[in-house]
Amino acid sequence: MHTNRISLARKILAWLTAAVGLALLAGCDTVTLTNLTPPSIPENPSQIYTFTLRVTPRTNTVVPSSVAPHVIVDGKSFDLKKSPIGDGIYEFEYQVPAGREELAYYYLVNYTVEGNGLLTPGEAYTEITRAKIVRRYVLSLEINRGPVGARISVVGRGFTPQDIINFNGQPARTVIESPNAISFFVPALDAGRNYQVTLNSPSGNSPVGTFRIDASSVSVSPGSLSLSTGAKQPLTFTIPNPAPPGGTLLDITTDVAESVIMPEVVIQQGQTSATITVEGGKPGSGSLFLKGFGSGEITVPVTVTAK
Fold it and tell me: In this predicted model, what pLDDT tens digit does every residue of 184-235 receive, in sequence order?
């Protein structure tokens, strides 16, 4: 008899547990809550951010006028108001205290169900969600194609000196002009291809867009250099079309760095050529290399002799 009583008690407990579970499941199915607030919110000067929620009744027994959504943030409950965006969408504008990097919040919706002549209160809520306030973000590339050496601007906000533009993971010469302005020179990579451009920084990587490197050519005069230590000689670089806004950077390298003394080569905006002065350093022989033009690389032989 003792065993039978325990068995009966267990059956009753299991039945009650199942009944309660079904009741809770039915309550969750009464309305559906859809969080429309993005997980990352671009910072704005007003520090006012909008919480947006869609409430969708799943049964016609929910009294429409009884739906009362709230957002709980920073331990306080705020009423959401109907949005002009569409039916069932509610919003609340929240002014964030200065210095906040993240917001933790959840939604709570009260409503009433009508059935069999009775009004029964109900509620639904979401999980706790975190939204990050993004102080650095990239909007777009100013243009999405150009030749090697062209200077390209990136539209965005919150740039820092640690930011570097990458083409398929390879760094490009990057110029930080201000927290809201950044530009880069198209690196000497293969022309006729599309590259994935990203903004890399210690805090993470941000996609910028796709950039296509177009083919271009450059001529160098003279085609070779023969100098003595301390002697100087002009070297002229010419491109077929005027340089775009920001100029065209010619990324020149050499295998005899101690033998060649020369400045950076930039063809200024609207110009088609630039002339620099090359000075002989230590005796040696090698070449200047200019990648990304013509067939892929232009070579200028260099010989430096002692006085």
Answer: 999 999 889 999 999 988 767 888 899 999 988 999 999 999 999 999 999 9
* Cβ atoms of residues 157 and 178 within 8 Å: no
Q: How many angstroms separate the CA atoms of 149 and 147, rounded?
A: 6
Residue with tokens 């959401």: 80
Q: How many CB atoms lie within 10 A of CB 75?
A: 6
For the stretch 55-81, pLDDT in tens is 999 999 999 999 999 999 988 999 999
- Counting Cβ atoms within 10 Å, is residue 176 exposed (0-12), middle (13-18) or buried (19+)? middle
How is residue 135 annotated by DSSP? S
> What's the whole-model pTM score?
0.57
**281 close to 240: Cβ distance less than 8 angstroms:** no
CA dist., res. 265 & res. 248, Å (int): 8
Residues near 79 by Cβ (< 8 Å), separated by ≥ 6?
Answer: 68, 69, 70, 92
**Domains of the chain, each with CATH number or no CATH:** 30-134 (2.60.40.10), 137-214 (2.60.40.10), 219-305 (2.60.40.3450)
Instruction: Locate 101 and state its tokens.
Output: 């990097």
Give the residue from 195, 261, 189, 206 showing the smallest Cα distance to 228.
261
Strands 204-214 and 145-147, sheet pairing: parallel
Work out the angle at residue 287's Cα, subtended by the Cα atoms of residues 222 and 147, and round it to the nearest 5 degrees.
75
Reduced to 3 states, what is the DSSP secondary structure of residue 61?
Answer: coil
